[in-house]
Structure prediction request, 208 residues.
Amino acid sequence: MTSVHVVDHPLLARQVAALRSAGTGREQFRAAMAEAAAVLAYEALRDIPVAEITVRTPLEETTGAALAHPVMVIAVLRAGLGMVDGFLRLVPDAAVGHLGMRRNHDTLLPEDYYESLPAGVAASTVFVVDPMLATGGSAVAALDRMRRAGARDLRLVCLVAAPEGVAAVQSAFPEVPITIGALDRGLDERGYIRPGLGDAGDRIFGTE
Prediction:
């Protein structure tokens, strides 16, 4: 079964509180999202494979570590863009791809509208990032697309999740680790996470 890691860190909790607040303006929301994503990235990157390397200090040779595989960050559009900078702070040379998916507000099912994937998917450690894991439809569709593109080492990172979304991903991809910042109460009748933080994409881009 999928491992689910809910990150417990005071700096992340502070940013999640700012993101939840209806009084947080657009600039502050973007900044808080980037800071929260950096903490999530730190935790999600904790167990990625490393390779031993030789390093020469000013005094002698010693051993060190380097990432064994390239890192690739796949943002689920639109809101996933708000998490990319957090990852790039830690892995500046990571490749970045985009999957455009919108949720049909009547069926609550994902609809594809854009795709741009870097080369080297199969050889990379791939992180699919999306602030909200609600019904799980978009996450499952994104993970499925990355599997079909050849991703072998595949992970999901979300800021806020509902139990229903976690269960959907666990059912479809029991081998994919999930890293989240907060596990919320559940979904309302519109499929919105409660208490949640509203529509992350709208709040990032000012399209409320």
Observations:
- Helices lie at 10-20, 26-44, 81-90, 137-148, 163-172, 200-205.
- DSSP finds six helices and twelve strands in the chain.
